[in-house]
Amino acid sequence: MTEPRVVLRLDEAVDLGHAWMQALADVRGIRVLFIKGPALHRHGLRDERVSADVDLLVEPVRFAEFCQAVLEVGWTTRPGNFISHRTTLHSETFLREGWPCDLDVHGFFPGFLAPPADVFDALWARRVRMEFAHVECDVPDRVGGALILALHSLRGASIQARHADELEQLTRVVLTEDERIQVADLALATGCAATLASVLPRLGVPVEAPVAELASRGLREWRERVDSGSHGAYFWMLALRRAPWWEKPAVLWRAFWPSGAELRVAHPEIDGTLRSAMRARWARWVHGVTSAPKAMHAIFSNRRRR
User: Fold this and answer.
1) Which of 146, 183, 228, 300 is the most buried (most CB within 10 A)?
2) What is the pLDDT of residue 86?
3) What is the 3-state secondary structure of 34-63?
4) d(CA 93, CA 65)
5) Is 196 exposed, middle or buried (0-12, 13-18, 19+ CB in 10 A)?
6) What is the dihedral of CA 77, 78, 83, 85, to 10 degrees?
7) Separation of alpha carbons 205 and 208, rounded Å
8) Cα three-residue angle 198-241-237, rounded to 5 degrees
């Protein structure tokens, strides 16, 4: 007789995912912090909603080791493509059959311009414990969570209403005087005073970014990502800029004509027919052409700001 299949609800899977990965990290002696997700509404930083995945930040020096440990307990790497391998350098995404949410493992978090190890240590020093599925898990405190939410929401606010709404919710949060001082100190320690220059004053935290941060390449690329909406043609322009000269023709060709496997990753609705593949390619070309002007403006306007 076949055993009945147990179907997890998304909220159950998220809680269990926290507990599972904390246990895995503890066994290996690896420091991890669960970022975004349910901790944010428990801190009172955004409205409650069910997360679509489990996000965690791993101490950078052991990032590869933790990813290998995740694979060893039955998770698999989500298929990437030509462009993601060249532009998504901060995280790996894992999935598991029958599990309704992904696992996003971060080695660093975009928008923090200080060295990743320094950022992790600064957040780790302020960590608090929260219970998920009866397991105590390490998460950033309210101050650290506010900075992470601000960076995450700002990056996609220009094209996603949810991110814009969450950023607006955050700016309405009432911080105590002590919390405002701590936000300023942590922003300076983690290198996000410049990347959050448009947000921190709205939190009642006026802080002057260091000159080195203002002049950094990291800040220029961050501003490009925010201004471009962090989608579409921008990532191909970024990949083209980063590629050595001998790889640039390949980048241009793959931007125009991705392989069938890559096309199916981006368009899982393709049914295997030539007609559906061409519809997907046409949609891709239209999206690329329409997003290109905004991406180009973001790149060239921020180059002039250097």
Assistant:
1) 146
2) 58
3) EECCHHHHHCCCCCCCCCCEEEEEECHHHH
4) 15
5) buried
6) -10
7) 10
8) 65
Contact 63, 107 (CB under 8 A): yes
User: Which residues contact residue 231 at a Cβ distance below 8 angstroms, ignoring those fewer than 6 apart?
Assistant: 156, 159, 291
- Residues in the chain with pLDDT < 50? 1, 4
Task: Output the pLDDT for position 70.
Answer: 96
- The dihedral through the CA atoms of 15, 19, 25, 30 has a sign that is positive
CATH architecture of 10-214: 2-Layer Sandwich (3.30)
pLDDT at 157: 59
What is the tens place of the pLDDT at every residue in 5-45?
Answer: 657 899 999 999 999 999 999 999 999 999 999 999 999 99
Residues in the chain: 306
For the purposes of burial, counting CB atoms within 10 Å of the CB of 96, is it exposed (0-12), middle (13-18) or buried (19 or more)? middle
Q: What beta strand segments (E) does the chain contain? A: 32-35, 53-58, 76-77, 91-95, 102-106, 128-132, 135-139
List, in sequence order, every residue forming a beta bridge with 92; answer none if it has no partner: 105
**pLDDT value, residue 1:** 45
In sequence order, the β-bridge partners of residue 54 are 103
- Report the alpha-carbon distance of residue 67 to residue 92 in Å, rounded: 8
- Tell how many helices (H) and how many strands (E) occur in the chain: 14, 7
The pLDDT assigned to 241 comes to 72
> Residue 206 in contact with residue 213, Cβ under 8 Å?
no
